[in-house]
Amino acid sequence: MIGNQILYVEDDPFLGEWVQYELSSEGYDLKLANDGESGINAALSAHQPDLILLDVQLPGMSGYQICKILRNTPQTASIPIVFLTARDSMDDMLLGFDVGGIDYLTKPFSMTELKARVHAHLRQNEQVRKQERTDVAGEIQTTADIQKSMMTRTIPAIDGLDVVAQVQMAQEAGGDFFDFQELPDGRLYMVEADVSGKGLPAALLMSAARSVIRATASQGIGPHQVLTRVNEQLYADLTEVSKFVTVFMGLYSPETRQLRYSNAGHSAAIYRPHDGVARIVEPDNPPVGVLDSYEYLEQSMEFETGDLLVVCSDGYLEATNAKGEMFGLRRMIEQVTALGDRPAQEIADALLAKVTEFAQGIRQFDDQSLVILRGV
Amino acid sequence: MQAAPSVESKTGVAVLRLSGRFDAYEEPGVRAWLTENCQAGISRLVIDLEDVNFLDSMALAALVKGMKDCRLENGDLHLCGLQQPVRIIFELTRMDRVFSIFDTESAATLAFEG
Questions:
Q1: Would the CB atoms of A268 and B24 count as touching at under 8 Å?
Q2: A311 neighbors A192 (Cβ within 8 angstroms)
Q3: Degrees to nearest 5, angle at CA A223 with A222 and A226
Q4: CA neighbours within 13 Å on the CB side: how many for A2?
Q5: Nearest one of A301, A286, A197, A311 to A256, comparing CA atoms
Q6: Which of A70, A125, A178, A315 is at 20 to 30 A from A354, Cα to Cα?
Q7: Is residue B50 less than 8 Å (CB to CB) from chain A?
Q8: Which strands form A161-168's sheet, in the order they lie side by side?
Q9: pLDDT tens digit string along A152-189?
Q10: Within a 10 A sphere around the Cβ of A293, how many other Cβ atoms?
């Protein structure tokens, strides 16, 4: 209870200061206001009170009117209000409860009783808040579990390709995702994507984006056609909430050992052919949700044995250390070059270890996701 | 955010100059500036990024929203003064093909008159 803020609206300065002295000595932070207007302003301030003590007979607005206003204002509606008044009739008391007070003490009151009641109301309030926090935490955890189950399904085994994917959310739930979908003819879709923003709003859109992409991809059309249609379907919704989705979408064919891909603003994708140097796979397209009626473009790349593609979200590149330096694209390319000959899982583990080591235990603020394809 | 917004009365173009990191912490201020102008009927906007050394996806999302709002009102959001690290971010997200980007603030402002 120590440090709880109490607002006392009272026009009698002697009574105000006495209550302030007594409650301050109990560790409460008590602020005084001498009329309705200054009381309401104090209740709306950045340092909102945890409890309001309210006199009834005040200059201008009465305590009952103030109470009604505070109850009808969303920012102050949940602050408990206790009336302290000389009006001791049953009607007055009932009116006090009727306008939304939770308790009613009549003057003269005993200071011991006031302290006991203030203490009890604040404890009750704290318990309600704790329960609310627990409820919200539970819902976030459920969202996180649903997301996890979407991304822990076994990646379909595919001839000629060693595939790994992983994700770490900055909060319990987030906007990064990867997905795989095998077509009846043996081809494999891969998706690595990042909804702008993080936390629950991003998680909600991630779920929508994933569903639309899956449903569209199930038609077996090219990655650029999938993204063109996904953009058509999501553009309005994404515009409404000022978000976009960066997507790297590939369609691998075991027969041709080719990956057709369309990159919608997803950074970074790095390709290292077995006999060449690592290069950035620059996107040909802006993210989904940025341009209305846009025709996405696609390209293709070979997957001979040893050819490597690493697609990661900006959470890897923007991992920041205590000095404020970012991991960056240059380090990422160096690592891909150095690790290129290892199995996909080892590369994924090593990249995560490198980025984590770089950040030196600093908490990261963005989701980090990664898909690796390696020709075998 | 070192915002120095000024409405050029002759051309009806509002300019915002930013500096330092343009990220989740700066984004609400920029978003408010964009919204205020659009609501006031000023839909020809310039954001000068000359002193910005980094921007993240939240910042890009705010710029995209501003651009869409302006274009709905037959205006546009022009960007200018992109330094190398910021230019790379625009290129790696292909946002360089989405926005009209100019070297200088005067070029970005003058482009509205053409």
A1: no
A2: yes
A3: 90
A4: 2
A5: A301
A6: A178
A7: no
A8: A161-168, A368-375, A308-312, A269-272, A279-280
A9: 777 888 999 999 999 888 877 788 899 999 999 999 99
A10: 8
Chain B contact present for A283, CB below 8 A? yes
Give the nearest partner residue to B94 out of A239, A286, A314, using CB atoms: A286
Query: Exposed, middle or buried by CB within 10 Å (0-12, 13-18, 19+), for A55?
Result: buried
What pLDDT digit, counting tens, does each position of A220-239 carry? 899 999 999 999 999 999 99
Q: How far is B97 from chain A (nearest CA, A)?
A: 8
Q: Which of B56, B58, B93 is closest, CB to CB, to A286?
A: B93
Measured between CB atoms, which of A239, A287, A289 is closest to B93? A287
What number is the ipTM of this complex?
Answer: 0.90
pLDDT of A280 strictly over 70: yes
Q: What's the gap in Å between the CA of A112 and the closest CA on chain B?
A: 46
The dihedrals phi and psi of B76, each to the nearest 5 degrees, come to: -165, 165
Q: Which amino acid is at A326?
A: M
DSSP type of residue A285: B
Query: What token pair was written down for A131?
Result: 């329960």
